[in-house]
Amino acid sequence: MNQTLFDQPDEPLQQLALTAQQHPPLTLERQMAIGQLVQAILRSGKLCRPQRGNFSSHYEEIYQEAKQDLLLYICENIDKYDPERGDVMTWCNFLLQRRFFPEAIPKVLDSRDIQKLPLSELARLAAPEEMPDLKEIINSCIESDPENSYQKTYIENYPEANFSALVKLRLESKSWQEISASFGIKISTLSSFYQRCLTKFAPKIQEHLRENLEEI
Description:
Elements: H1 11-22, H2 28-44, H3 59-76, H4 88-108, H5 111-116, H6 119-123, H7 134-143, H8 149-152, E1 154-155, E2 158-162, H9 163-171, H10 176-183, H11 187-214
Antiparallel strand pairs: 1-2
Helix pairs in contact: 1-2, 3-4, 7-9, 7-11
């Protein structure tokens, strides 16, 4: 039995993408090629699932939102596909990981859900699971604070136990028990303060992450 279009590697997908690019926008030929391409992508089973295991019961809704945005982008921007930079699925999965999944998270989660996320998942609002130097970007965010608001925000009578210091210790994988012993402060006090700071500074951290990711 001959292989069908959807059984073959990425070469047929690339051919459909190039065929679509050869025809002017809004022409029937272009739309047919794009339609076939989208169906081929969906049937390939090769679309990645970024951050699988995160966002608990919301994951599937976030993923479906991201996938629909990706497919719409492909339909409207097929000319941006460059075969010299990789095959079609590499392009699709790059966009899904780097752009559309992160963008879908705040669309699905409301502000209360976002405020409950740990710092590692707040970072994922703008960064994919394989984002290089993520800790470096977050550190840069904490250090790039013209108003020094992260250091000025500290536990009463413990200026050294400020939000900036706690973030850096957590990024170093220090446990709350270790941090508690270091500062001489109860774990419950540290954790409560840290969560309040995350809620307060989440928008600022997210914006810094997005700005850095756009430069990559």
